[in-house]
From TrEMBL:
Belongs to the V-ATPase F subunit family. InterPro entries: ATPase_V1-cplx_f_g_su, ATPase_V1_fsu_sf. GO terms for molecular function: proton-transporting ATPase activity, rotational mechanism. It comes from the Bacteria. The lineage of its organism: Bacteria, Pseudomonadati, Spirochaetota, Spirochaetia, Spirochaetales. The keyword Transport applies. It comes from Sphaerochaeta globosa (strain ATCC BAA-1886 / DSM 22777 / Buddy) (Spirochaeta sp. (strain Buddy)). The keyword Calcium does not apply. Keywords: Ion transport, Transport. Signal peptide: none annotated. It holds the Pfam family ATP-synt_F. This is Vacuolar H+transporting two-sector ATPase F subunit.
Amino acid sequence: MKYFVIGDEDTVLGFSLVGVFGMQATTTQQAMQAWEKALENPEHGIIIITDEVANLIRSVVNRYLFSETFPLVVEIPSPNSKQGPPDLRSLVNQAIGVSL
């Protein structure tokens, strides 16, 4: 199983340093292209997407968050996010839908 990240330049670059491939997206069109690219490869079991990019294609992301079983979608805060950085426990709780 592989990860795929979609987000701003800094997020994609940061994840690439640990071997996670991804695509930068700043527009709705780029976000949709990145999303489709992530779904092309069945080995991409986890899609990591920043909240700002997810908001550009919210209906598509929500369809996978709430109804699809694969791949797992993990929404992370953008570096410029208005909300403070969440703790790891809350990110995991959101990703798996279970309160730990």
